Each structure stands twice: as C-alpha cells, then as structure tokens.
Prior knowledge:
The structure is a homodimer. Chain A is of the alpha/beta class. Helices cover 48% and strands 14% of the residues of chain A. A seven-stranded mixed sheet of chain A has the order 6-5-4-7-8-10-9, with helices on both faces. The model of chain A is unreliable at 1-18 (pLDDT under 50). At the A-B interface, α1, α2, α5, α6 and α7 of A face α1, α2, α5, α6 and α7 of B.
Amino acid sequence: MSAHIPMSSGATSIAAAPDGVSPDHIFDIGFAFRKSKALLSAVELGVFTALGDGPLDGETLMARVGIHPRGGRDFLDALVALHFLDRGEAGRYANLPDCALYLDRRKSTYVGGSLELLNSYLYVDWVHLTQALRTGHGGSALADGGYAGLYADRASFDTFLQGMSGTSLIAARSLAERFPWHRHEMVIDVGTAQGCMPVELARSHAHLRGGGFDLPQVEPIFTDYVRRNGLSDRLRFYPGDFMHEDLPKADVLVMGRILHNWDLPTKKLLLRKAAQALPDGGALIVYDNIIDDERRHRPHSLLASLNMLIETAAGFEYTGSECSAWMREAGFRDIRIEQLDPISTAAIGIR
Amino acid sequence: MSAHIPMSSGATSIAAAPDGVSPDHIFDIGFAFRKSKALLSAVELGVFTALGDGPLDGETLMARVGIHPRGGRDFLDALVALHFLDRGEAGRYANLPDCALYLDRRKSTYVGGSLELLNSYLYVDWVHLTQALRTGHGGSALADGGYAGLYADRASFDTFLQGMSGTSLIAARSLAERFPWHRHEMVIDVGTAQGCMPVELARSHAHLRGGGFDLPQVEPIFTDYVRRNGLSDRLRFYPGDFMHEDLPKADVLVMGRILHNWDLPTKKLLLRKAAQALPDGGALIVYDNIIDDERRHRPHSLLASLNMLIETAAGFEYTGSECSAWMREAGFRDIRIEQLDPISTAAIGIR
C-alpha cells in the first residue's frame, strides 16, 4: 500500500444519499441539548461570575468553581467553542461581552436566574415530553400542585421567582422604551414575582408609581427587591389571588407570562378583570411567548406552549390574533401586537 | 390616551444594555434543549414513519401516533417551525426531504436509532452534568457497569446497538467512498455492534470480505443484520473481548467510537493490539468525535468528550495530534486526519 492515500479533502457535509439530502440539521438539533446543558451547568457552577474580575488560567478557574480536572478542560473549551468564553494566547479564559454583562451574578443585568430555572426544573421536566404529548398532562410539580404548592417549598420558591426576573428583565427594558409611559402615572404588574417589571419601568420613568400584585407569600421577596433597587417610595406590594379577587386599580396593568398558564375560560376571566380595574383610556399590556398567526415562524413560542403542557394543568400559548379577539371580547380596543424581544411579544389594548 | 400608540417597530433583537450587547445567543442556547427534545420525542412517537406514505391532516396524524389533542397541534407546528415537517395549504403535514430519508424507520437510511439512544439515555444522563464535572464521575449505567452490564438488559442492549448503527451509518458511507478499498481484501470492524460499518463497506465494494469483532452476546444481532442485508457470504462475526484477547487478523481494521470510551493506557493498548493484528502495509482506521487541535472549533467533539465523562469510567475524546502521536508510538506511519462528516473524524495510519 502506498504511503500516500488518495482521499478527498475534509468533509463539512455528507452526501450519502443519491439525491444529496443531508442529515446535518437532524443531528444538529438532536444533539443540541448538550449545548444547553453545558451552558446551564456553567451558570450553576458560577463560571461567569468567577471570571467577573478578569481572566483566569484553567487550573485556577477549575479550582475556584469546584470542577474536577477530568472533564474540566473539555468543559471550558466547549464553552469557548460555543462562544461563551474566550481563551487567550496564554490559555487564560475570559467572559465574552454578553456573558460578562448577563451571566455575572453580581450585576443588575444578570439574567442567569432564568437559566437556573431551566437547569433546576425545566430541563428535567422535559424528559417527560413524550408522556405529556400522549396524555395531555405533564405531571410536573407545578401542573399537579399549582403555584401554592410550588411556593410552599422555599428553595423552589426562590429559584422560581428569581428565574422569573431573569426572563422578565429584557422584556421589561424593551417595554420601558417602547410604550408611551409619559401619558400614565400608575402601573401595576399582575403576577409580579420579585417585581422585576415595575422596578425596570420605575427606574426608566421617574414619574411612574404603582407596584406589583401577587400571592401574599411573595410580599417579602418583592419588598426586598424593590428596596435594594431604591424604589420603595414609589412601588408597593398588592397582595391577592387573581383567581378569587378583583385586580387593583391602575392606569396601566401589565400581565407578563400569566395568561399562558391557564385554560381559555380563565384567560378570558383575567382579561375581564383587567378591563374592570382600568379607567377609560387605561391600557392593558399582556406579554407572553405569543405564537405567530401562521404558526410556523417562531419555534420558541410553539415550544413554550409545549412547556405549558408539561408545567401546567391546562395552560397554552396563543397567537396574536387569538389574543386580540379575546381582548376585544373583554372590552379593549385599538389592540396591537408588538414583539418585545426574540422571546416575548406584547398585545396592548386600550380600555 | 390616543388610539394610536407610537411605539417602535418589531424588535428582532434587544439592545437593553448601554453598549448594545444582546443576550440572544445566551437564551438561544439555553433553551435549545427544547428543540432537541421535541425532535427526539417525534422520533420516539414515530411521526416521520407515520408520514412515510404521504401527507396526513393533523387529526389523523395525532390519532395514528397516539398524541393527545391538548398539545398535539403545537407539537406538530413546532416541528414545522423547526424545519422537520412541512404543512401544506390544506393543513396537511408532510416530512421534509431529510426526515423522509433518515427518520422513516422502514428505510435502510434510517438514522433515528441514534436519536432513540439520545432520547432514552443521554438526554436524561446529562441531567447530571454538573455533578459529573464536580466529581469527575458521571454515574451512568455504562460508567458504573461497563458494557457487560449494559448488554445484560435486553431493552438497553437493543437500543444501544441500534443507536450505534444510527450514528455509524453516515460515517460508514463516507468512509466507503473516501478510502482506497480496492487495495485491500479483508476488513474487520472492531466493536462492531450491529455491523453497520462492515455492511456499508461490503455493500459499496463487492470484492471486500471480513466482518465485525465484538463481545459474544452481540453475535445474533450482528448475524441477523448482515443476513437481512444479504451479505452473509462475505461477512462473519468474530467473537471476543479486546480487553483480554488479541484482535483478529485483517488487512484493514476499523475502530469507530471505541478509543473514546477508555483511559489513555487502554487507548494505547488497543492501538498496539491493532498494530499486532495487521500485516506490513495494512491500515488502521480510527474514528471518533476527534477534537480540533486548537480545541475551539468543534463544539460537538468537546461536548462528546463531556458525554464520555458522564457515560464512561475514564473515557475522553482527543485531538488529531494526540491520536497521531499515540499511533506513531504503536508502530503506525503516514498518519492522516480526515473529517468523515460533521460529527466523525478519522485518523488513518499504515502499519
């Protein structure tokens, strides 16, 4: 045999089938859970926070976040290959700009709470997707016990509420910029969790006051978060259960990732309650992972609806057209659909 | 309040931070496990096989694969949005070409066995990535019990062996095209599982004979697969345990996704055994998820190495340079690295 094997040069895509159809996309998506989990574990281990003060060599970084040498280097280099970390010539690892800003726990721009929630609950709950599809019931803690059950476990409660802030922050900042807040004075966020939304709105608009409405056990978490953000003079907590009580009165009500948790009669009930709580000319801002009307352009929203299948007893996401129709039925007019960020879309209506 | 709310037009990316850094990539990867799981569940439910005879309306398709109406439409439309299914004007779902070819169980080009393996084992095992990173030990069935343990459970055994074929098929077809097989007569695949590799090689090259080497309990599976492919006259099974026995003699030995399972001394032992089994001028073809030498360009390979952390007691992937050095040390020359497909890379050496 010759020392020089004639072979074609490096393949980046295969063409095994006669018609040149490749399985690349299938394998790319099929294996994508590993990318997710590597990022989620990096957040859990505090890799990006550990790099918040500057680059570190691999050994120091592994020791600081508590990674065993066996997989440590592959893990950190996977984060480089996935474009979360940079690795300099001296072999020192550093946060890339997005991770420095959004995944360092010590920064107010931290959105990692959302990823912590994915890591602690949703990644695991999605193991049961097939079963949920077969039965129409996901069997997660939330689907079985509701929010009261979830909130009864302190660790789950904190992870959940912080996760809500992680997911809300970008939508809140987008909404702070995109809505004519100067025309309104009083805004209340319904199902507020930590209060990320009212804090971001009040921070951006010095004339705004109001607060957040949620179950009574959320109050200390909300109060603490608002105080840490120096907004206790303008934002207060409104305790209540929107399933059994009226919503508090305000010029603007926000319902972010609330409607998607519930069945259609409850969705409509909440919209009617919002209409009752608003004055003429007041605004309701609903936002969720709203599905595009053609149901084919936003995979994230359709997958979010499967998440509701898994995580709730009867929740689902919905299209902009569906939401508009329900809002008109509840007494809203001039409804418009507005994408806030790649994940969240708002439906805004005037009372 | 005006009926016309002046708001900026649809956001496709947010720019909440002063410097315009977006968290889009972070959220895209953080949520990517949902895309994976939707595809893996679709394969498990047989969606693509059910569409193998032509398009079906949603209701018929859901009934045929056993999906409950609650999440069914969102699930199918998510598969449309993820570019696995098409949905025509009449609302009928159809396989896109890659899924028709590779995910219909009745076709010889089916690679879904690989996804079934991800679905049944790896997605779940990756729940424990953080723990594996902390301890250096994954705790999966394979890591704890080895192949004998895995093979003792019939259902696991079948899923595993079929999964190996799913992952091997594309590499095998690429290798059938890319290597100068006309110079050799006898090829044996080491750790052959069902025998996907020798079957593809023998199918493409009528002069080739040989077979597959694996643990004795694999024999009936191998024999059946070879018989179904009409190759029993040229391919036979070689039973043995490469940890304790010599490798069978052949002109070409293939070791696909074998070395990555083991620690470095065992990797080197297997390479020495291959050198002993080959004649002068014989070839060893190793293929694995080989890592690029800079350890930054192939996330799939680095993540595959984390998979070895989780799934094996001491395995890891390795770079082309590392493999070349080990092969030279074992007595091989003229070693070249060749990417077979987006997942698999070969290191080929001459005895």
